[in-house]
């Protein structure tokens, strides 16, 4: 069946005008004239037989039909851009661009990364850390590790790991005048906060502790910095399993209590559709899965 298509060369102009609600700004973005944008949109309207914009003296707005069409065309152009990136990626197959959080990079990825590099010396790696979701197309990201619900528009999302949350501290805090033996002993110690959704107030409530002030202590924006503070005996942290597994294995951190909570969000491996056709992306994804499985096996032993 033949496809029913609009004038394809006019679509970028329509998309830009719909996003900016301005023919002038659309023209500036695409390095075209205001007249070229206006003609492109008129061409589409004539072909489709519908009105896409309401044109005012100094402004434009989308009609209901135009708004619905703009949403679909914008998504289609994004998919075409992503497909083009994947198709042309072999030209730069030696560089793998990874996006993740600062905490996950510092506490989990970097300490293990020598094993990936040793097995794939022909792949150069660029790691980008940010508290915001990376735009795969705009930022040139090949693969990401994200913590969340796993539903991300326009990309493939694979489950990597659940996250358990429990108190951890330096072994030194199990000694002294007020050793940590039971949750109520936390009132004698500094609580370390890192902005994680499961906070001390929630954990203490679930543990049945009522005589500890959940807001006291020291706060860090970075989960990595919070973990370092716990390692150095500065207080007790609500540790996230993936971020403190190495410190637990080495004995730098210990679990003073057995009570734990399971976070509703999880870690996911995220990439563009078709990205696994690139050897560098597939190799890193497979390595992530193997490393996380090894961590789980070690924890169960």
TrEMBL record:
<protein>
    <submittedName>
        <fullName>Transcriptional regulator GcvA</fullName>
    </submittedName>
</protein>
<dbReference type="InterPro" id="IPR005119">
    <property type="entry name" value="LysR_subst-bd"/>
</dbReference>
<keyword id="KW-0238">DNA-binding</keyword>
<dbReference type="Pfam" id="PF00126">
    <property type="entry name" value="HTH_1"/>
</dbReference>
<keyword id="KW-0804">Transcription</keyword>
<dbReference type="InterPro" id="IPR000847">
    <property type="entry name" value="LysR_HTH_N"/>
</dbReference>
<feature type="domain" description="HTH lysR-type">
    <location>
        <begin position="14"/>
        <end position="63"/>
    </location>
</feature>
<keyword id="KW-0805">Transcription regulation</keyword>
<dbReference type="InterPro" id="IPR058163">
    <property type="entry name" value="LysR-type_TF_proteobact-type"/>
</dbReference>
<comment type="similarity">
    <text>Belongs to the LysR transcriptional regulatory family.</text>
</comment>
<dbReference type="InterPro" id="IPR036390">
    <property type="entry name" value="WH_DNA-bd_sf"/>
</dbReference>
<dbReference type="InterPro" id="IPR036388">
    <property type="entry name" value="WH-like_DNA-bd_sf"/>
</dbReference>
<dbReference type="Pfam" id="PF03466">
    <property type="entry name" value="LysR_substrate"/>
</dbReference>
